[in-house]
Amino acid sequence: NSINTLPIYFSPLREYRSDIRSLASIYLNEKNSSLGKHILGYDEKALNLLEQYSWPQNFIQFWRVLDQIIEICDQDYISVSLTREIIETEDNIFYYYEKNNAHGVNLDLNRPLEEIIRDIILIALENNNNNQTKTAEQLGVSRSTIWRYLKRRF
Q: For the whole prediction, is pTM greater than 0.85?
């Protein structure tokens, strides 16, 4: 018994920079519908930030970031500050993960971003003797960001 598979390769998202606005808008409309939200669109600077980002983890990272932004947004338009905060959090947390992965940290990345972030924060807290201030400094986020992720239930 065997299963034949056909690998599908996508070019990196950074090669589709001209499509990022359209992809982000289509995804926003889809998420608005499924979440019952009424976000009208993106601030121009937020779109510019999405276009300029390198998307090292490709499309899956793009969808994770947009999920976070849309879920958190409570305004008519997605702001550049919210977009920057989510991208910076993603960068800092995955940098920490990649740096420590060689030291036996093993995370299942096929889960929602919120769960992955929470696990990384818990690992960092353990490494810092549960000191939230040191953990926040190490991950490059605010102490309130650490607290926000820890208080959520999964």
A: no
